[in-house]
Structure formats: structure tokens, C-alpha cells
């Protein structure tokens, strides 16, 4: 069964998410379920479009220490099929979107699934603690 595409080609909001994701070492885009997913080679670290009713959202894997606080933040929600393993969704449309914050969430999600070699490449590119530089 082929899933319908959730986004039009060249969608500017999806393109912005794409740029943030593909800036990470060895990140690749794979279409799955009619949506762009972003992977650290194989494991997913960002899934766009959590559902048909929330298309402009991303699902990310949270840091274990930050997860409880993020669950209490009204901007986050539990996405279908991702509950139970520190995955949360957040919308990325509207005028109040904090793209710096989304970039940090995306990088944190990447760090949760990346292998040591990829993490080492990321540390060389932007050492942790110095903030997102893109």
C-alpha cells in the first residue's frame, strides 16, 4: 500500500527542517509513509508530519534527562506510534516557531541515535555546549 504524500515538493517549511537535519554528519533523507524522515544512516532521528491532522510537526527522540520536562511543556505532544520510547512531537508552523530551539531538538534527537563515529564528527563540527552554529 502506498501512502499519500503529505507535503508538496519544495514546501518551504519542510525545506527548512530538511536543511537542519541534513547539516548533521551522514544524515540522509528517506521518504517513508509519504513523509520525509531523516536518519543517521539507518535509525530515524526526525520524522516529519506526525499525523494527517498535524502535518507541520516533527517527531524527535528526546534526551532521557530532558524528557520529563518536555512532556510538561504544552508545545509538545505524544505522536501516534512513537509513545513509550522518549519520542515527542512538536509543531513547526505558525509565526511563533523558534527555529533555534527546533535546531537544538533536532541535534539532540540525532545524538540519541547516532553511532560513536557520527558523534565524533559532530563534536568536531560543533562541540557540545557551544550552541548550535548553523
Structure described in brief:
By secondary structure, this protein is α+β, with helices and mostly antiparallel strands.
Blueprint of the fold:
Layout: H1 12-22, E1 27-32, E2 35-40, E3 44-48, E4 57-61, H2 67-72, E5 76-77, E6 87-91, H3 99-113, H4 116-125
Antiparallel strand pairs: 1-2, 2-3, 3-4, 4-6, 5-6
What spatial order of strands do you see in the largest sheet? 1-2-3-4-6-5
CATH C-level class: Alpha Beta
- Total helix count? 4
Radius of gyration: 14 Å
Q: What's the count of strands? A: 6
What is the global morphology? globular
Low-pLDDT parts are none
Query: What is the terminal-to-terminal distance?
Result: 38 Å
User: Structural class of the secondary elements?
Assistant: alpha+beta
Assign the CATH topology. Answer: Aspartate Aminotransferase, domain 1
Tally of discrete structural domains: 1
Proportion in helices: 25-40%
Order of helices and strands: HEEEEHEEHH
Major beta-sheet overview: 6 strands, antiparallel
The CATH architecture comes to Alpha-Beta Complex
Strand content: 15-25%
Mean pLDDT: 87
Amino acid at each position: 500500500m502506498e501512502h499519500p504524500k503529505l507535503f508538496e515538493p519544495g514546501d518551504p517549511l519542510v525545506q527548512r527542517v530538511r536543511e537542519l537535519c541534513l547539516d548533521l554528519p551522514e544524515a540522509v533523507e528517506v521518504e517513508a509513509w509519504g513523509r520525509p524522515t531523516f536518519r543517521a544512516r539507518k535509525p530515524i532521528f526526525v520524522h516529519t508530519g506526525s499525523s494527517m491532522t498535524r502535518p507541520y510537526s516533527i517527531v524527535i527522540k528526546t534526551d532521557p534527562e530532558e524528557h520529563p520536562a518536555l512532556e510538561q511543556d504544552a508545545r509538545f505532544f505524544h505522536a501516534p506510534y512513537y509513545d513509550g520510547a522518549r519520542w515527542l512531537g512538536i509543531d513547526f508552523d505558525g509565526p511563533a516557531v523558534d527555529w533555534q530551539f527546533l535546531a537544538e531538538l533536532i541535534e539532540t534527537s540525532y545524538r540519541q541515535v547516532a553511532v560513536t563515529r557520527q558523534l565524533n564528527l559532530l563534536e568536531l563540527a560543533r562541540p557540545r555546549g557551544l550552541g548550535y552554529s548553523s
